[in-house]
């Protein structure tokens, strides 16, 4: 019988881990419980807690541990996993989250049946501090131009644990931007969208768990991250400035709601300098309301199904 590593898996699962010993066992167990057992689990670990010792005790041969002695950051960790993934299809899992047993089999079937689809996004159950809710994707296909625009406008839910992508497409798109700490999954998919269509699934295939120290909770870093995002996606500055303005004003409002005046003025200065905020306050507010209204309308399933791309008046 050939050794397991000589057999090409159907799916590679990439799981970055940094000091998540409290949640990592749940995440790993959820992958090992898949109803499609033909996978490899790449745990990219740069932890300084008890995670390395715990990983060393795992005996399932499908687990491959990529160990770094210095902190990589989540995007660099995923890119390392992408570089060594052996399967034709790759899925991602954050160490706080967990898969349902059919998390891999359903997207794999979709990709096999629809060769023009390069990426699948699935629905989830989100477990917040105060409530549990279902975040459903509409059940439809988005062609490349519609997929890219839906991502730029945040018309669809994007979480890394929902992404299943053809491995070569992910590599051709350049992987994840390693300078981003927020929205890196969305930015990655905007480049994937140039290479093919996406399939959104209403199937609830995974669970999102919020952590108090998660990267998404750091509101003070959001402004600098938006500027880095604009460097990677300059269209929101020069082609669709309403999107850049909307993102900036939304963060400024969030600063004020936290009563974080210092961050508010720091963000205001850097947004102005970068060209994300143009014109007077009244015009910025009008633009913000226009984008907000558009997003509310176009997030509806019937509107998304007819989406082709950006409104001509926004260019």
Describe it.
With 315 residues, the chain is of the alpha/beta class. It has two domains: 4-209, Spore Coat Polysaccharide Biosynthesis Protein SpsA, Chain A (Alpha-Beta Complex), CATH 3.90.550; 219-314. It is 41% helix and 19% strand. Strands 1, 2, 3, 4, 5, 6, 7, 8, 9 and 10 form a ten-stranded mixed beta sheet that branches. Helix 10 runs antiparallel to helix 11 (261-274) and helix 10 (241-257) packs across helix 12 (281-298). The chain is globular, with a radius of gyration of 20 Å.
Quick recap of the structure?
This protein is an alpha/beta fold and 315 residues long.
* Coarse shape: globular
**What is the element string, with H for helices and E for strands?**
EHEHEHEEHEEEHEHHEHHHHHH
- Can you give the mean pLDDT? 91
Distance between the termini: 60 Å
Name given to the CATH architecture of the largest domain: Alpha-Beta Complex
Radius of gyration: 20 Å
Structural class: alpha/beta
What is the CATH level 1 assignment of the largest domain? Alpha Beta
Low confidence ranges: none
Domains counted in the coordinates: how many? 2
**Count of runs of 4 or more consecutive helical residues:** 13
